[in-house]
Design a protein that fits this description.
Arc Repressor Mutant, subunit A; SH3 type barrels; 5-stranded antiparallel sheet
């Protein structure tokens, strides 16, 4: 199983646990998924940061008001946004239940989906998102040149993330992996 497949499977199973009201510690997940503590902390603090997670007595769980809110429609939307919808023959509820089942999903192996590992770019993604949503200029170094860009969209093409925006009134794309020291402007 590729690194990307392992991440997707692990996150889906953690989402399933949270949605069903389970409480767990980082150590529980480290043991279950056989990954490092840092990986699980990244999952909870970055990859799943959009969820209203609570932590009490070293146990993580979903805020009560949010329990049961994640449904198969949310999973379908995630598949569409992440560009993996067409990897599966169907996204019907029964198929999704089987994929999320720890026993059944071991029958699946997906290879060949190329992507840029963006797991270390959570902070930058939030910065770009803020710039786009609040119509702020963003500055950064790119190809040994300082840039000032009016950001428009974050886009993923064939597994590589780009920032699309206007530089000197010309629409350009910048590979996120090559952007150095991004910072927001008040303009």
């Amino acid at each position: 199983m590729s690194k990307h497949d392992k991440i997707a499977t692990r996150l889906a199973q953690i989402l399933n646990k949270l949605n069903s009201g389970e409480r767990f510690s980082v150590e529980n997940l480290v043991e279950e998924f056989e990954v490092t503590k840092r990986t699980i902390q990244r999952d909870l603090n970055e990859r799943l940061s959009y969820l209203p997670l609570k932590k009490e007595n070293n146990l993580y769980f979903l805020e009560e008001y949010y329990l049961g809110k994640l449904n198969f429609g949310d999973i379908k939307n995630f598949a569409a946004i992440s560009g993996i919808r067409d990897l599966f023959p169907t996204l019907e509820e029964n198929f999704l239940k089987n994929i999320l089942d720890g026993v059944v999903n071991s029958a699946y192996l997906i290879k060949g989906h190329n992507y840029t590992d963006s797991s270390e770019m959570g902070k930058e993604f939030r910065l770009y998102e803020k710039a786009i949503n609040e119509n702020l200029l963003i500055g950064f170094e790119y190809t040994a040149k300082q840039r000032r860009v009016e950001p428009y969209k974050l886009l993923n093409n064939k597994g590589v993330w780009y920032l699309a925006g206007l530089e000197d009134k010309v629409l350009k794309t910048f590979s996120l992996g090559k952007i150095i020291r991004p910072n927001l402007s008040d303009e």
